[in-house]
Specification:
This protein is 47% helix and 11% strand. By secondary structure, the chain is mainly alpha-helical. It folds into 3 domains: 57 residues, no CATH class; 82 residues, DNA polymerase, domain 1; 168 residues, Intergrase catalytic core (hpI Integrase, Chain A), CATH 1.10.443. A 3-stranded antiparallel β-sheet has the order 1-2-3. Helix 6 runs antiparallel to helix 7, helix 7 runs parallel beside helix 11 and helix 11 crosses helix 14.
Length: 346
């Protein structure tokens, strides 16, 4: 075979050409594990025999373009001030979709036809919409860096908006009553205040002001990390509702921990434990599709039905901009007309 490893370097010999390569992609070949060395040799031989090899530049043209796109993607991710969970999701999207589909040509050769695979594979679905937005952001970044001759605009993908899920108030309290007692107080915050599960898990006693009946959302759980909520600038305050203050005062007397909802082993409890406790209880009362996050939608719809202003709903949900809260306006109207169907397992 034209490529083989000898004395800690890769030797390529074919058609009168002989070259030694001690390093590949910044890593010494002698430091690679035996199975990695075998895979490297197999890759080189496959590329050489298929004609996809530049002997002078010691590179594979298709592989070079693929690495170029990958480098652009990672630079784009590095410069985006996103939360860890969002970065992981976008990184998976780029690795699974963009790089494999468009890694065989240089960036300047890309056209809109090269992105037809998004709609062909996924249609007009939410997944296609997410992939399209990520790919478009990478293309915009590449054009701003001067690596593309012109800016490409991928056609938009619009998906049908689903009605906001709504759980009746009696069902919510029934789920709370039969849920695991260890997580009932956490579920209560979701039912009465509409807090996200990440905000509940990351809640600390220093963020609660009992005299003002306010909860300060300064930290949240993103992926596996507790991160500061700097997305919109200042901290977000939400008011306590219902029996929330009474519940928190009771826990304050009985719990000696930095966290409002500590785990058995110390530290904060896991988010999947709370969501699973709610899901199991909901399934017992015949709502197998109910999720903890749906309580947040229910709080907004209930407040709207009670005549609460949009500003108060925005404050309760902790939205930084009014446009985020306005999506509930149409759902509130549908609820009054009885057009919001709730989950019955079908």
């Amino acid at each position: 075979m034209p490529a083989r490893i000898k004395d800690g370097y890769l030797r390529v010999t074919f058609l009168g050409f002989d070259r030694k390569l001690p390093v590949w992609r910044g890593q010494r070949i002698r430091d690679l594990a035996p199975e990695q060395q075998e895979k490297l040799v197999w890759t080189f031989n496959e590329m050489i025999l298929s004609g996809n090899y530049d002997a002078v530049k010691m590179w594979f043209p298709k592989e070079r373009a693929k690495l170029l796109i990958k480098k652009i993607c990672w630079d784009w991710l590095y410069h985006k001030p996103k939360r860890p969970a969002t970065i992981d999701q976008q990184k998976d999207t780029l690795e699974k979709y963009l790089i494999p589909h468009n890694g065989k040509q240089s960036v300047k050769e890309l056209t809109l036809q090269d992105f037809d695979w998004i709609r062909k594979e996924h249609g007009d679905t939410y997944m296609a919409k997410q992939i399209r937005s990520t790919v478009q952001a990478v293309l915009n970044y590449t054009w701003r860096k001067g690596l593309m001759d012109k800016q490409l605009y991928i056609w938009p993908i619009s998906t049908a908006k689903k009605p906001t899920p709504y759980i009746e108030l009696a069902d919510r309290w029934q789920i709370h009553s039969i849920a695991d007692p260890f997580y009932q107080d956490a579920i209560l915050l979701s039912i009465e205040c509409g807090m996200r599960v990440g905000e509940i898990v990351a809640l600390q006693w220093g963020a609660i002001l009992f005299e003002h009946e306010r909860i300060k959302l300064v930290r949240a759980l993103s992926g596996r990390d507790i991160v500061d909520m700097r997305k919109g600038g200042d901290e977000v305050w939400i008011p306590m509702r219902g029996t929330t203050k009474e519940m928190l005062l009771r826990r304050r007397k009985n719990i000696d921990s930095l966290w409002v909802f500590p785990a058995y082993h110390g530290g904060h409890t896991w988010r999947n434990r709370i969501t699973m406790a709610f899901k199991v209880a909901a399934k017992k009362i015949g709502l197998p599709h109910a999720r903890l996050h749906h309580n947040r939608n229910c709080v907004a719809i209930d407040m709207g039905l009670a005549g609460t202003s949009l500003e108060e709903i925005q404050e309760q949900l902790g939205h930084r901009v009014r446009q985020t809260t306005e999506k509930y306006k149409g759902q509130i109207g549908f609820r009054r007309m009885g057009k919001v169907r709730w989950m019955n397992g079908k």
